[in-house]
Amino acid sequence: MWTGSYSIVTNEVTKEQLWKLTTDIDNWKNWDDTVEYSKLLGGFAVGQYFMLKPKGGPTVKIKLIEIETFKKFIDLTTFPFATMYGEHLYEETAQGLKITITMTVRGLLSKLWVKLVAKDIVDHLPQDIANQIAHAKML
Q: For residue range 92-122, what is the model confidence (pLDDT) as tens digits?
């Protein structure tokens, strides 16, 4: 198993603003410069899927497996002989809103999928979260 994570605390946005931005999957390309295309299939609910095409990569189908409104959602991507979980967590603290994104890869070929996918995602998280904050402020 491999895990990579990034957190930041901010007073610039509320959890409601951030939730509205990040659960609007069809518009991720407007703030995430690594996304070419994303489309929610059905509603934002446990058991539903969305399609994601990263720039320079193939389209993948991702399943929403856990949702706590305004607090967190977890998605699951299935690769050959590995799975990748993306946890998006929003916690109110005395210092401000703590935003944490954690990527976890498990499975026989986890090392391969970390190298091909997950490491790049985690390396880009500081910029992704900065973009999320900037765009969520406008909501």
A: 999 999 999 999 999 999 999 999 999 999 9
Angle between helix 119-136 and 15-22 (nearest 10):
120
pLDDT < 50: residue spans in the chain: none
Domain boundary assignment for the chain: 2-136
Helices vs. strands in the chain: H and E counts, helices first: 3, 7
DSSP letter for each residue of 96-128: EEEEEEEEEEESTTHHHHIIIIIHHHHHHHHHH
CATH superfamily, domain 2-136, is: START domain (3.30.530.20)
Instruction: Kindly report whether the global pTM for this prediction surpasses the value 0.85.
Output: yes
